[in-house]
Amino acid sequence: MIVAGVDDSDSSWRAVAYAAGLARRQGALLAMVYVQPLGAVTAPGVAVSMAETTSEIAEEIIGQVRESVKRLGDDFKLRWEFHTFPGDPFTGLAKAADDLRADAVVVGASERAGHRIVGSLAVRLVKAARWPVTVVP
Fold first, then answer.
1. What is the reported pLDDT for 69?
2. Do the Cβ atoms of 133 and 126 come closer than 8 Å?
3. What is the CATH architecture of 2-136?
């Protein structure tokens, strides 16, 4: 199984495309994972709003995936599934990869400048060293 992190950024869609080709060539299942951030703010109205927003993002992503798979047609022969995990991106993807027993993890390169200083999701996944990690630019 190949796990691909998707968050609706351009780099994550490139990672999903790469992972889909890899899964297809290897006859593996592609598990696309969206990590729903937990609300750090505890105000009741704000927490509910954030949960609704992240659920809407997940629904939008799954809709785009279904549309893309439909366009590819039956000849592409891609087996896929979509999962959501709560948490921060590293914890969510690591849990997904462990729970789904991933053979490999594919993520997009960070598009945020601050990650060069603090460290990106990809670097943290590589340092965890529990699965092969491919970072797609």
1. 67
2. yes
3. 3-Layer(aba) Sandwich (3.40)
